[in-house]
């Protein structure tokens, strides 16, 4: 249709992805990816290290950045309803090199996020087993590497985090079975974890102590990012991890029934629901327990325990909800990574194995197996803090580029039909760039060499393979005739 994206005809014999996802399933994918390690794991560490009770304000600040980026994602997802998410949008706006580099950067958001969440999943799973008298040996329940005080890698006495490896293997197998089975599992787990989050808020909020919330903003220690207003900003970058996931809706474009209409609904709907839950949940946590006690793998359990006998019955349910919630995040993160590599492979940047669809399951089986194996390796070897900060940094960089892409395409392709348009243009994308930039800056202060190293690896792959095999993308922007 004129003014929309045209799909290039697939090569003869190619098997295509199946369009089976409606708006509620897309919202479910977004919530499944968003509610997980951010609220069940990362929140406690960010409160203890950076913001204290003001972690609630950090969630509000992060939400503002997400809202700006989410509106930009919604415009581009409706305008370019093709798999690949930010990779595809960057390709459309900036060309092959930037598109490839953003696709490679997204490995930090999706692949690394799956590893990070698997580590958090292992912590809650170990706690749940402990309630029934089963103890997992320490050397097989934590990472053999840790982050030293100077940011370097140090070894521990552990061998491998087996629970984290195991859950990645199981969910990789589920993805191979097909998108319909995966979406059904995701929706069931979403209902379970949202119900438990609502229970924690409903029963915990009336029991919060004013003493735990005083002072709301602890005095800065003299170092940027350690409490005070700079701590709120630093924490917002760390807990930005909690919002990662709404953009995963965009990578489902080629499996959505009506992508132009349903993708914006999925993106903005899941973001709005989760924001309300996050603010109330974080207030409940720092109100029940002093923020300094929350730097653990299972902070929600610690907060519930601090409430005493009144909430003792809820502790096991919280661990069940965390396990369910983290499972869906791992599932959607793995799903998102496979679809990004699918799109990059179809465009020639990666080997054809990553876009080969199995005729029976209609899923990229080889790609899913490879990605699952790499994710399991990282989950088994590295701890939460190393992985989590990398994920937040990579995601914020992608969000900034998406906001820029909206502005570039508005100027260079003004006549392409936009079923959804970002309101208050250009203020929204500009503010998205500023807010996301403010959140990523404290992270890059300590992570710049890791992020730079990761992007350097991507550049080498592009120069050695991608640039020589690139071909026309499987979509094409079509301009509408100018209005007379």
Tell how many strands the DSSP assignment holds. 4
Ranges with pLDDT <50 over ≥5 residues? 7-13
In CATH, the homologous superfamily goes by the name Amino acid/polyamine transporter I
Spatial arrangement of strands, main beta sheet: 1-4
Radius of gyration based on Cα positions:
22 Å
Order of helices and strands: EHHHHHHEEHHHHHHHHHE
| Class by alpha and beta content | mainly alpha
As a percent range, the share of strand residues is under 5%
Mean pLDDT: 81
Let me know the largest β-sheet.
2 strands, antiparallel
Fraction of helical residues: 55-70%
Number of helices: 15
Number of domains: 1
Q: Which shape, going by the Cα principal axes? A: globular
Say what the CATH topology is: Amino acid/polyamine transporter I
Euclidean distance between termini CA atoms = 19 Å
CATH class, named: Mainly Alpha
- Looking at the overall shape, the CATH architecture is Up-down Bundle
């Amino acid at each position: 249709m004129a003014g929309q994206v045209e799909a290039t005809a697939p090569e003869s014999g190619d098997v295509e992805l199946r369009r089976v996802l409606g708006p509620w399933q897309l919202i479910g994918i977004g919530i499944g990816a968003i509610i997980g390690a951010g609220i069940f794991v990362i929140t406690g560490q960010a409160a203890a290290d950076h913001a204290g009770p003001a972690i609630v304000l950090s969630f509000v600040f992060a939400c503002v950045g997400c809202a700006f980026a989410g509106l930009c994602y919604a415009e581009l997802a409706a305008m370019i309803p093709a798999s690949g998410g930010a990779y595809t949008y960057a390709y459309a706006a900036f060309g092959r090199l930037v598109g490839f580099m953003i696709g490679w950067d997204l490995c930090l958001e999706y692949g690394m996020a799956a590893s990070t969440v698997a580590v958090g999943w292992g912590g809650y799973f170990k706690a749940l087993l402990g309630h029934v008298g089963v103890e997992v040996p320490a050397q097989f329940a934590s990472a053999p590497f840790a982050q030293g005080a100077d940011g370097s890698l140090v070894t521990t006495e552990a061998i491998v985090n087996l629970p984290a490896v195991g859950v990645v293997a199981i969910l990789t197998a589920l993805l191979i079975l097909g998108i319909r089975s995966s979406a059904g599992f995701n929706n069931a787990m979403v209902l379970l974890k949202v119900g438990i989050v609502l229970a924690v808020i409903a029963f915990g909020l009336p029991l919060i102590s004013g003493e735990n919330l005083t002072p709301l903003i602890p005095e800065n220690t003299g170092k940027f990012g350690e409490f005070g207003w700079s701590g709120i900003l630093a924490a917002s970058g760390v807990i930005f991890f909690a919002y990662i996931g709404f953009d995963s809706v965009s990578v489902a474009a080629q499996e959505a029934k009506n992508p132009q209409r349903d993708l914006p609904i999925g993106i903005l709907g899941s973001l709005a629901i989760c924001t309300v839950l996050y603010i109330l949940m974080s207030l409940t946590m720092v109100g029940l327990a002093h923020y300094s006690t929350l730097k653990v793998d299972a902070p929600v359990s610690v907060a519930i325990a601090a409430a005493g006998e009144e909430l003792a019955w809820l502790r096991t349910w919280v661990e069940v909800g965390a396990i369910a919630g983290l499972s869906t995040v791992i599932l959607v993160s793995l799903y998102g990574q496979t679809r990004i590599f699918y799109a990059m492979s179809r465009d020639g940047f990666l080997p054809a194995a990553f876009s080969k669809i199995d005729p029976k399951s209609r899923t990229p089986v080889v790609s899913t197996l490879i990605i699952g194996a790499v994710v399991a390796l990282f989950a088994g070897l590295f701890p939460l803090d190393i992985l989590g900060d990398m994920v937040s940094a990579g995601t914020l960089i992608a969000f900034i580029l998406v906001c820029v892409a909206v502005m570039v395409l508005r100027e260079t392709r003004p006549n392409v039909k936009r079923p959804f348009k970002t309101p208050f243009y250009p203020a929204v994308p500009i503010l998205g760039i500023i807010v996301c930039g403010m959140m990523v800056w404290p992270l890059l202060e300590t992570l710049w060499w890791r992020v730079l190293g990761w992007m350097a690896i991507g550049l080498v792959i592009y120069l050695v393979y991608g640039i020589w095999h690139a071909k026309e993308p499987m979509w094409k922007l079509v301009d509408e005739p100018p209005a007379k």
